Target: Phospholipid/glycerol acyltransferase domain-containing protein
Amino acid sequence: MTSTTHHRQDFWLWRLVATGMAFTLFGLGGVLLRAFVFPSQRLLPGDTLDRQRRARWTLNRTFRLFIRFMVRVGILTVEFRGAERLGQPGQMILANHPSLLDVVFLVGHVKNANCIVKHSLATNPFTRGPIANARYITNDESFDMFDRAADVLRNGETLIVFPEGTRTPRDTMPRFHRGACAIALRGARVVTPVVISMNPRSLTKGEPWYRIPPCRMRYVIHVGEDIDPATWLDAHPLPIAGRRMNDYLHAYFDTELARTAPPGASMNKQSPIAVNAESKQDESTGT
Model:
C-alpha cells in the first residue's frame, strides 16, 4: 500500500461530507445572525459601543464553536501557541493568510477585536450583517480607511490585519502591502506577528470547497514576540520607516514559515532584483 493511499484513508469521504456541512453552517449562521441575533441585541439598552461590543462577543463565541465543530468532525486540527498574548489595548495583530479560515481562528481567539476585511464581504449576504454590526473596517484602500484604522488603535482597540490583502498563493511566501505598516506606525502601541502554517494547503483562493486534501488539515498558529513600531520611527522618517518595517516583517515571516514547512516543500520568493528595483522606485517617489 502506497503512502498516498494510506493518507487518503484519513476518512476522506466523511471529511468531504463534513466540509460541506461546515460551509453550510457558516452561511446559515451569517444569515441567522443578521436576521435574528443582531436585531435582538439592538433592542437591549446601551449606546453604539455597547452594541458593537455585544456583536463582537457574539462573533467570538460563534467562531469558537465553529472551530470546535470542525475539529470534532475531523476536518482539521489546530494548535494555537501564545494566544494569551493577544488582545492588548492598541495592539495590531499582523498575520499571514494561507487559507479561508484564518480570520475565523483569530476572531475566535481574540475578544472584542476589530478587523480589516475585504470590501466585497461588506456586500456579501452571508457576511455583511456580522461586519456591519461588529463595525469592522472594510478595505477600500481609501485614505479614510487608513485614518480609521489608525484611530481605532489609538483609541485602544485590538486590530487584526492580513497585510497580503488576499490569501497567499500556493508554493509562495507572503508578500505584504506596506499599508499595514503605515497604519501601525501611525497608531499602534505594539505590533504582534502571528504566523499561520498549515499542512496540507487547502481552501486557497479560487479553490472550490469540495477539493479537500487527502488528509485532514493541520494548523499551527504561533504568536511571535511583540514589536515596538517606535524602533523604526526613531531612526527614519515615516515613509522610509514603513518600508524598513515591512522588510523586517517579510524576513521574519519567511524565516518562520520556512522553518515550519514540511520536508521537500518548495516556496518561491520574490526576486531580489525586483525587490531592490521596487525599493529604489519607492525612494524616488517618497512612498
User: Anything to note?
Assistant: The radius of gyration is 20 Å. Residues 3-265 form a domain with the Glycerol-3-phosphate (1)-acyltransferase fold (CATH 3.40.1130). DSSP finds ten helices and seven strands in the chain. The longest helix spans residues 12-42.
